[in-house]
Structure formats: structure tokens, C-alpha cells
Amino acid sequence: xxxxxxxxxxxxxxxxxxxxxxxxxxxxxxxxxxxxxxxxxxxxxxxxxxxxxxxxxxxxxxxxxxxxxxxxxxxxxxxxxxxxxxxxxxxxxxxxxxxxxxxxxxxxxxxxxxxxxxxxxxxxxxxxxxxxxxxx
Length: 136
What we know:
- This protein has 136 residues and is an alpha+beta fold.
- It has one domain.
- The chain contains 3 helices and 3 strands.
- A hairpin with a 7-residue loop joins strand 2 and strand 3 (119-130).
């Protein structure tokens, strides 16, 4: 490496510049991968907490709405999709004991570090569970 830098023809300088550019691009890719992994972990926590509140109460309202608002205050803006295969009462969005419920949390973001170019990426997490409340 020292011999390349001592060379007076300029070849070592060009090689070193190309090496630095490649190193920076690899560093940007690694930082993006790390940020997507941490984003995915945060979305897992959000989905788990909202699903736990929903399955415990057996409905998508009240406790799950409180958990959703608490997560919005604690984290950032995210899209939430909730649902079930079968509702006991569709107006109140109640789910009978043992029936599946699901929560989908998604965030739209961009790959960072590419300058003017913005490549959109959507990170989505889906969790499902069973209702734990019996409705009469």
C-alpha cells in the first residue's frame, strides 16, 4: 500500500480514491441494513403490544385504541391495519373467544445515503393471535 502511495505516476492516487469510494458505499449499505433491522424490531414491539391489548379485551377498541395512541406518542407515525376472520358484533368489532385476530403495522421509509435518489421501502410486520374473551 505504501509503494502505491509513493508512486509518482498517479496510479496509486487513483486506486486509493476508488478504494475510499467503495469503502464509503459499503459503509452506507451497512448503515441502511442496520437501520432497517432496528425499525423492524420496533415494529415488532408495536404490533405485539397492540395485539396483546386487543386479544385480552377481545375487541378492536378501548384498550387497543389506547395502546395505539400510546405507541404513536412513544414512536413515530405508522400505518395500522386490524381485523379478524369473524366478528361477534361488527359494530363494536368484538371477536369471540378462540377466533383469530390480526394486526399489521407498516412504515414507509427511504434508503438513505444515495444523495438525490430516493428509493422507497415499506417495512411491514403482521402478528396474529386468538381472542381471550367470551362474548354473550
